[in-house]
Amino acid sequence: MNDNDNNNDKDVFLDAMKGVRRLDKSHHNRSLPRLKRPVARPIQRIKEQHQVLEDMMSDPIDEADIVTGDELFFSRTGLQNSVLRKLKRGQYAIEDELDLHGKTSSQAKILVAEFLRYCTQTNLRVVRIIHGKGRGSFNKQPVLKIKVNHWLQQRDEVLAFCSARQVDGGTGAIYVLLKRKK
């Protein structure tokens, strides 16, 4: 490479830089603003979770099993009679409750599953679910009562449940005894 080539390159460079001016010092080392990453929205995961919840509580229900005024009772084997007796008498403190009044069956199913998950995570033992007596339903039958009865029996974390005392909702609500968190 000779001096003519170097001078020629320099001339080409200077020609290309015509009109370009030096930035003042306040712009030196200025980094570009960082863009915030969009928050990941796990839509597919949420859809899959809802599908799992639906599948977990989707066995067919024989609605003839329950008559409108019937009290509900369910217990897993091995539970002590004294525990069941205290549950029926409402002698355990209610740690939280879920009110399903005005909810559709599909809304109630999701709410019950989410409520039970929350109760398990926070180690709640005794809760009340208010399903109502069905007086506002189309055929005056307790649709949610029938379905909640069915759904709860399918959940492993539910040890027992029974209709509440009259002052706590009577046959329109249930006390639910849940497993301890391991």
From TrEMBL:
Residue ranges annotated for the Smr domain, each copy included: 98-179
- Chain coiled-coil ranges: none
Q: Which PROSITE patterns match?
A: SMR (PS50828)
Protein name, as recorded: Smr domain-containing protein
- InterPro entries in the cross-refs: Smr_dom, Smr_dom_sf
